Amino acid sequence: MAVERVLPRLGCMGSFMLRILGNRTRLCDGISRRVALQVGGLSLFSRLTLPRILHAELESVVSGTAKSVILLNLFGGPPHQDLFDLKPHAPSQIRGEFQPIETNMPGVQIGELLPQIAQVMDRSTLIRTYSHKYNSHNPYNVLTGFDGGNDQENYFAKRTDHPSIASVYQHFKPIQGDVPPYVILPAYPGYSQALRRAGPYGGYLGSQYDPLFTLLKQTRAEKAKDYAPVIPIGTPELPSLDALPDVTADRLDHRHTLLEQLDRDVSRLERSRAIDVLDHFQQKVFSLLTSTRTRAAFDLSREPDVIRSRYGQTLWGDSLLICRRLVEAGSKFVSVNWEEGQSANHWDLHENNFGMCRVMAPIVDTIVSALLLDLEQRNLLDSTLVIVMGEMGRTPRVNAKAGRDHWPQCGFVLLAGGGTKRGFVLGKTDAEAAHPIERPVSAGDLAATIYQLLGVDPKLTVPDLTGRPVPISHGGEPVWEILA
Asked: Measured between alpha carbons, how far apart are the two ends of the chain, in Å?
């Protein structure tokens, strides 16, 4: 590593740089122990840590094409055998009730419940062999790339958790602006069970890298029995200002929209000096929540009716449309977590797999195809990485309750834009879609690919709470075959 080439780019003074460089004795990784220790000490004064120096050196090599990420996380684990990897010649208790249909990619078929996605497959990359060992409903492997945990260890989020990909991205590429860089809709994972599931947080990097979670107070849908879903109707909302001075949730006027209330209360707060007593972090949150660009991104009344209709005007359609508006405004990582307890809308299909799919898969079909076409028409698809996946697949064999059970050994990932290939399928599974037989892709591999596309070197490390360097890709390598 030519440290001499890095430091001038980081703006060091010449005389100061001479003291930093020290002797040229080198270790096996190419950096001398004296250089490593002295440069590491700079973080006390200027946040110039060794990982940041290494990142600066590699920045010209790892030049990402994606400026932002939109993740649709099908929480619970969608059945790949019924959506993107059908096996029509398998026995009936494996192949299920659905038939494959042709797509606009010659020779590529997907499930009959996804006819609109079939017509945009030429804009997509499909991975049929997402495979790992993490049998848990936490979105931990999806959001961090780590699959070495378990339910007992990771059921609840904790300070020692690995940071999310979005949190690591902010750590290496600090983001300035008046919109939240990292947002999860419609609420925090686990909200329907009143628990905070592991995965989306800054973990040992710190809570300053946590996402903004929107609120979902209720949906306009009848209460459904589990495994008998109805379509949820609702729109994610910005958090209230109840944690800030003189603004409480109880005082909000329910006759007006949250955006109107924010306009009113922000004006009142700004006229007072209440915000002057907030610490730096609180003021940052205040500025993000109350900025014109943030509030505008959540105001779907500004969207033409034809666009809102294209997304379907369900909870999931509105959520994904807000994601597109946030990306336009400058957000870097936005995710929709498909979890809605009131209407039994989830993908943990231990029962009534086919009935649940008949309700939920058409929504996925509508909103994903709408998002890709919308981004393309706005010239945003090339710079926006779209990811559709769940934390696991489902068992090949249908159980006695017409359901499919947990199966992390194999699942799918659909990607589009952001530097991925168009019209490409990676990986092949066996005759039952049970195991990859060609090109398995791990959670770490997918994380490394996302980092590569975002311009963050996948080989970097971050320190845990003990100072131990932890690889951000957890042993994964970029899936080079899918990069354009």
From this structure: 28
Could you tell me the CA-to-CA distances from 421 to 121, 130, 378, 440 in Å, in that order?
11, 17, 19, 18
Whether the pLDDT of residue 124 is over 80: the answer is yes
Domain containing 46 equals 3-58
Q: Among residues 36, 58, 80, which one ends one of the domains?
A: 58
Q: Are residues 218 and 351 in the same domain?
A: yes
Where does a domain end: 58, 86, 104? Answer: 58
Query: Whole-prediction pTM value?
Result: 0.81
Residue 63 lies in a domain: no
Same domain flag for 291 and 351: no
- Which H/E stretch holds residue 381? none
In whole angstroms, what is the distance from residue 294 CA to residue 393 CA? Answer: 35
Neighbours of 158 (CB within 10 A): 13
pLDDT digits over 200-249, tens only? 999 999 999 999 999 887 666 666 677 888 888 889 998 865 544 333 33
Residue 123 domain-assigned? yes
Place of tokens 């007992």: 152
376 burial level (CB within 10 Å; 0-12, 13-18, 19+): middle
